[in-house]
């Protein structure tokens, strides 16, 4: 492939990537670095914890890179009111996309109306901003994954997303295919957790995934393999 062709291929992949840093130890300098990388590589967005939204918004001003934040993260077990407040506050501070964790315990207990209503209220609070619902596939049966996707669609979510990156597993092709079928084209699908190389990224995109959450975005677009070994809380 020519250098020009390589640049085009890298940009194509970059446009799918939410460049992510959600570690508890992240500080201001880490967020600024994340934003510089997002500008340089033209990632679709940065995904940060909500306390960093104002800084990310400032750092990305005029770049075209969006600010995405997480709500109810990483457990999804906060009160509905807390999640709605966190989402609306993040939006007012400069976020344009919200990745919320649904209440996994409620879902597994069959409290579907409550799960759906929480998603609906968050979507209502953020209006036209994109809402992605993290269903945390590693804790669910296939039937529960399908149910979670259907509830998210019924509540008006724009995306369903596999994982927080803090659970016991991340995105796998079988779950992504199941989710794509469950949403029936009424929502998009985001893969996150364990997306660490270009081959995996391209395979998921070929399945129909339209966003990738990863802390390995630079490795993906450059074609370099990430460091081996466990990565606590990494996308």
UniProtKB/TrEMBL annotation:
Any Gene Ontology biological process: carbohydrate catabolic process
UniProt catalytic activity: 2-deoxy-D-ribose 5-phosphate = D-glyceraldehyde 3-phosphate + acetaldehyde
Keywords: Cytoplasm, Lyase, Schiff base
KW Lyase (keyword) present: yes
Main localization, broad class: cytoplasm
One GO CC term on file: cytoplasm
Molecular function as annotated in GO: deoxyribose-phosphate aldolase activity
Coiled coil: none
Active site: 99, 161, 190
Subcellular location(s) per record: Cytoplasm
Enzyme class: lyase
InterPro entries according to UniProt: Aldolase_TIM, DeoC, DeoC/FbaB/LacD_aldolase, DeoC_typeI
Enzyme Commission code: 4.1.2.4
Associated pathway: Carbohydrate degradation; 2-deoxy-D-ribose 1-phosphate degradation; D-glyceraldehyde 3-phosphate and acetaldehyde from 2-deoxy-alpha-D-ribose 1-phosphate: step 2/2
SMART domains found in the cross-reference section: DeoC
Family: Belongs to the DeoC/FbaB aldolase family. DeoC type 1 subfamily.
Function statement: Catalyzes a reversible aldol reaction between acetaldehyde and D-glyceraldehyde 3-phosphate to generate 2-deoxy-D-ribose 5-phosphate.
Protein's name according to its UniProt entry: Deoxyribose-phosphate aldolase
